[in-house]
Amino acid sequence: MSVLVYTESDKGTFKKIALEVASYAKTVADQLGTTVTAVTINADDTSILGNYGVDKVLQVTNNALDTFNAKAYASVIAQAAENESSKVVIVSSSADSKYLAPILSINLNAGYVPNVVAAPSSTEPFTVKRNTFTNKAFANTAIETEVKLIGLSKNAFGLKENSASAKAEAFSPSIPELGITVESVDKVTGKVTIADAEIVVSGGRGLKGPENWGMIEELADVLGAATACSKPVSDLGWRPHSEHVGQTGKPVAANLYIAVGISGAIQHLAGINASKVKVVINTDPEAPFFKAADYGIVGDAFEVVPQLIEKLKEFKAQQ
Fold first, then answer.
1. Distance separating alpha carbons of residues 116 and 136, to the nearest angstrom
2. Same structural domain for residues 157 and 212?
3. What values do phi and psi take at 304, rounded to 5?
4. Helix (H, G, I), strand (E, B) or coil at 272
5. For residue 113, is pLDDT > 90?
6. Tens-digit pLDDT profile for residues 23-66
7. Which residues of 245-255 are buried (b: 16+ CB within 10 A; e: fewer)?
8. Residues 157 and 106 in one domain
């Protein structure tokens, strides 16, 4: 009856969110007086999971699962939960997990609560705290089904080392007929992805054109950040749609979000509101973003950003 956690990986390497959900699962397992079992799909070295409290690893290796498919992944996790008689199953709130979680909920007949930000406040009844209203409020939600499915919000719990043995064993679930053939998958390489980034530097129409994006990329390089953009920028074709963040794009829950030349439409703010620290640089002191930001600079981005880059380089050189 261990707590089951799905630990996501990319090309065999665990994502940071995988270690965060493992940390969270360990806390829940301690509350319930049980252990943590992780299910991995085509991951390489699973020993790192033991550093975050995982006692057992069910390793799934199958070439049919090289490309993400929500139905197939949900089936694998459900079979792992049944194998372990798990009554609590934990996934992340990544894009992939949000696709598979509703299917997994049906497979397990489980109550599903996404965007959870804290350990259960009670186990009887099983109650968790989650973000609501695009991260403007919290709700304490009781899950009354026998099996409980939790989607942990990114950067909500953090990484907590808690060493365990992480005994690994092969697990061979049946794979459902997918009916889909994937010809190819194109992914950005050599850059920090928005999904995994601790810091995101985002640009808007205030940059006046794609030819000026170099300073956004340079600032991102200095900070080890991902680059992003507002919806109008991607609609204009200045940047790829994969970089569009906001309620109608990719959600962002970074530790630091820097918005350059973005006025702050409500849809954009809703999608990045979960970020812990928000910084805005804009020439318009009445821009809506200033009301949502933790720090604001009223000024011309073409003057402010180069100075910021130089100061950051000087600071890093002293470290």
1. 14
2. no
3. -70, -50
4. helix
5. yes
6. 999 999 999 999 999 999 999 989 999 999 999 999 999 998 98
7. bbbebbbbbbe
8. yes
Collapsing DSSP to helix, strand or coil, 267 comes out as helix
d(CA 167, CA 50): 8
- CA–chain centroid gap for 194, Å, is 9
From residue 227, alpha-carbon distances to 70, 234, 244 in Å are 27, 12, 9
Q: Are residues 144 and 219 in the same domain?
A: no
Structural domain including 231 reads: 199-317
Task: Look at residues 170, 156, 169, 152 and name the one whose alpha carbon lies nearest to residue 61.
Answer: 170
166 — pLDDT class (breaks 50, 70, 90): confident
**Strand 126-132 relative to strand 36-41, pairing:** unpaired
Q: Among 235, 274, 238, which residue's Cα sits nearest to residue 156? A: 274
What would the pLDDT profile of 268-303 be if each residue is shown by its tens digit? Answer: 999 898 899 999 999 999 999 999 999 999 999 999
Q: Would you say 112 and 27 are in contact if contact means Cβ atoms under 8 Å apart? A: no
